[in-house]
Amino acid sequence: MRPLRCKGNNRLPDIANPRCILILRPSAIGDVVMASPMVPRLRKAFPHAKIFWLVEPALADLLRHHADLDGIIIWPKHEWVQSIRKGRWTSFLRQVKAFRRRLHEIEPDLVLDVQGLLRSRFLAWLSGAPYRIGFTSKEPHLFLMTHLIDRGPSTKHIGSEYTYLLDKLGLEPSLHSKFPIDKEAAEKAEKILAQEGIHGPYCVLAPFTTRPQKHWLEDRWARVADTLREDFGLPPVLLGGPGDLPSAQRIQKLCRGKIHILCGKSSLLESFAIVTGASLTIGVDTGLTHMAMVQRRPAIALFGATCPYLFTGGTQGRVIYHRLPCSPCKRSPVCHSDYPCMKSITVEEVIRTAAPLIGPEVTSNAYCAH
């Protein structure tokens, strides 16, 4: 059976009182963050429904303490992949059946697949939910879904496709909600900063992500760090994972002063708490940058090969993006690793954009100290 496509002004079917809703967005930190405002909006519309989120193990802690979620379903993707790669098909089938039983335990009657990949569609189908709604895409096996919609008009607002999906369900608009940071993570983040000697305002730099075409130049990060420290009195904090440490150390060597390198020293949720408390975050297309935007914190996103949004939905977020003939190229750069889209962003442009976002108390304190 082919899924029903809902285009234009057509709404999805009215689902008056779902008992259990399952959100499918298993991976990608930034996308999980940008999709997270769906949860309180669903909770407001369906106060008596159970709401679960299916996610990979690495991101489970991000959602574990969400007040509007009744639980998370952890998908053991790695085990499935290992069984397939090693040709252990009997083991793979056992894993799939066990996970299907876990999904059937919560008895979802509405699944929202906001990833739109073959694997997420398969997981939606595996749930047995009578309503399986997702986005149209180039991925095969559309029959795994019951209803498909496009991703909505290209408004270039952060998370616009998720807002559009809930609009199509007929849900009332809701006020913006921030990503919940649990108290323990916030306290640990404060201790980490204190160990670095940071007890006042600071800025966060988020230079790292998985694809090189999204990176900015290391020497420019160093110049931005020096300027924020020297001219605005903001000690720069560099966030990332353990694998980002060599690049962070290279940036430090290019600086005139100290950068507080926290790569691998804080968990993902603790890093989010650090971003939430920062006077300014500057980053590339990565989860930490998107977190600052969702939290309505002063932030600048540097885009080149990708451009997921141009409008942040708040007054304190800015996007720097130069549209070139080859941009956005997403996963298929044609510039032979030259990345002119990112090189076209200058240090002066970033600082000029940052200055109005930095609170007056920070700026005045910095200049009084000179």
The oligomeric status of these chains comes to: single chain
User: Can you tell me the CATH topology of the largest domain?
Assistant: Rossmann fold
How many structural domains can be distinguished in the coordinates?
A: 2
Classify the secondary structure makeup into a structural class.
alpha/beta
What is this entry, summarized?
With 370 residues, the chain is of the alpha/beta class. Helix content is 38%, strand content 15%.
Structural features, described:
- There is one protein chain.
- Helix 3 (60-63) links the parallel strand 3 (50-55) and strand 4.
- The protein is of the alpha/beta class.
- Strands 1-7-6-5-2-3-4 form a seven-stranded parallel beta sheet, with helices on both faces. The protein has a six-stranded parallel beta sheet with strand order 10-9-8-11-12-13, with helices on both faces.
- The chain folds into two domains: 4-168, 3-Layer(aba) Sandwich (Rossmann fold), CATH 3.40.50.2000; 184-369, Rossmann fold, CATH 3.40.50.2000.
- The chain has 15 helices and 13 strands.
- Helices cover 38% and strands 15% of the residues.
Features:
13 strands; 370 residues; 15 helices; alpha/beta; disordered C terminus; transferase; Rossmann fold; six-stranded parallel β-sheet
Give a topology summary.
Layout: E1 4-6, E2 20-24, H1 29-35, H2 38-45, E3 50-55, H3 60-63, E4 71-74, H4 77-85, H5 89-106, E5 110-113, H6 118-127, E6 131-135, E7 147-149, H7 160-168, H8 183-195, E8 203-206, H9 218-232, E9 236-238, H10 245-254, E10 260-261, H11 268-276, E11 280-284, H12 287-294, E12 299-303, E13 317-321, H13 340-343, H14 347-354, H15 360-369
Parallel strand pairs: 1-7, 2-3, 2-5, 3-4, 5-6, 6-7, 8-9, 8-11, 9-10, 11-12, 12-13
